[in-house]
Amino acid sequence: MQKSLPHLIRLTVVLAIVGLAVAGCGRKGDLDPPSAAATKEGDVSKPTKQPGTVDKPFLLDPLL
């Protein structure tokens, strides 16, 4: 039991650090506002492209 306690503490710390790192992943910044055309029509379900933005394909796009 003596040697398993430090191992359990180390495992808990490593899992907490990994959890914080994964929780911090994502897109940084504010959410994109809906376009003026979408708000006039009342349909905000479809995302619209903002002028001047380039659509870069992502590895998981086909799954979405």
Strand fraction equals under 5%
Average of the residue pLDDT scores: 75
Shape estimate? elongated
Write down how many β-strands occur, each being a DSSP E stretch of 2 or more residues. Answer: 0
Radius of gyration over all CA atoms, rounded: 22 Å
Percent in helix: 40-55%
**Alpha-beta classification:** mainly alpha
Which runs of at least 5 residues are low in confidence (pLDDT < 50)? none
Q: SSE order, as H and E?
A: HH
| Count of helical regions | 2
Task: Give a summary of the structure in a few sentences.
With 64 residues, the protein is an all-alpha fold. The chain is 41% helix and 0% strand. It has 2 helices and no strands.
Describe the fold and architecture.
This protein starts with a helix and ends in a 23-residue tail after the last helix. The protein has helices at residues 4-23, 36-41. The chain is mainly α.
Name some characteristics of this structure.
2 helices, mainly alpha, 64 residues, 0% strand
Secondary-structure map with pairings?
Layout: H1 4-23, H2 36-41
